[in-house]
Write the structure tokens for this entry.
Amino acid sequence: TARSLAGIDSERSWSIREEFFEKFKDKEGVKEGLAESVAGLDSDKAWELRDKLFEDCPKNVFEGLAGVNSERAWELRETYKDKFPMEVAASLVGINNKKSQNLIKELINNDKGKFGVMAYLMGNDSAEAWQLRDENTGKYLKDMPFAFAIGTSLAGLTSERAEKMREKLKIIADNSDEIIKEKIYKGIAQGLNSNYIYEAIKMNKQYA
């Protein structure tokens, strides 16, 4: 699928994206996958594709903005942070600077933004990241998006603290209703298998 191209900026990858867009753009999920396939990429071609897709799938465009720390990316986030708080927060994966920290502090208090904040923490083993996980797990774990996101935020983490969090999540899951239980376990599984956007950003080394 187009998502498998995430983080790849080669000529071959762009040939595939262009073919997908020309031949299959009207098929279900293709535009969304293409939007996410440019995660970590700040090239002119990546922005041309985002511009083409934004009207039809803006939320996916923000997923594909993960790891991009340019002025243009920040202008887009600032413009749409109130309309798409969850997706804007998630687009900050791989960016750790004053701007991202300030926006995260703003969005963690938004009902939808807080779910995206957990995605932002993906692969982040800092003291600040753990404080956010610890402070918010008990508050929001019964909300379905959060139930999935907290486990996903542990992608790439193998520390003892991460393993303890996974065990804690399993205990909570086993004492929850079936829907929340399934979401928590799916999040844990995705966190163990890593994540294509996280891997794309890591590959491009766009941490700021």
About this structure: The chain has a mean pLDDT of 87. Residues 16 and 165 are 39 Å apart (CA to CA).
